[in-house]
Amino acid sequence: MKKVECIIQPGRLDEVREGLTDAGITGLTVTEVKGYGRQKGHTEVYRGSEYTIDFIPKIKIEVVVPKDRVSGVIDTVLEKARSGRIGDGKIFVIPVEETVRIRTGERGHEAV
Predict the structure, then answer these.
(1) CB-based burial of residue 14 (10 Å sphere; 0-12 exposed, 13-18 middle, 19+ buried)?
(2) d(CA 76, CA 79)
(3) Which of 14, 41, 62, 105 qualifies as a FRET site for 111, CA 20 to 30 Å off?
């Protein structure tokens, strides 16, 4: 099992979610996060005053899937979240050692 963490632009969430659902992903976790990468924030003007936003709002999507479905998840997120501009986000793939469904006590693939 692998956990795929995707940091994407907030405006791309619905498109990515629909793409993952169409790809057969039945569950995911979404978290509103803030951060920065190479762009290190940006400057905006509001009512004539310029101010710097250090942490940019993003969405983190977490999906746990069998190893053989990881590339499909990555391809879907790339297709749906990519604008080609700075700040499109990142995808991380992390090994998952154990999964337990709290309600039933099921473990492994049955618990996902």
Answers:
(1) exposed
(2) 5
(3) 14
> Distance between CA atoms of 88 and 15, rounded to whole angstroms?
14
Q: What tens digit of pLDDT does each residue of 44-60 get?
A: 788 888 888 888 999 99
Mean pLDDT of 79-86: 93
Q: What is the pTM of this model?
A: 0.86
Q: Which residues contact 84 (CB under 8 A, 6 or more apart)?
A: none
Cα of 45 vs its chain's centroid, Å: 29
- As a whole number, mean pLDDT of residues 4-18 equals 97
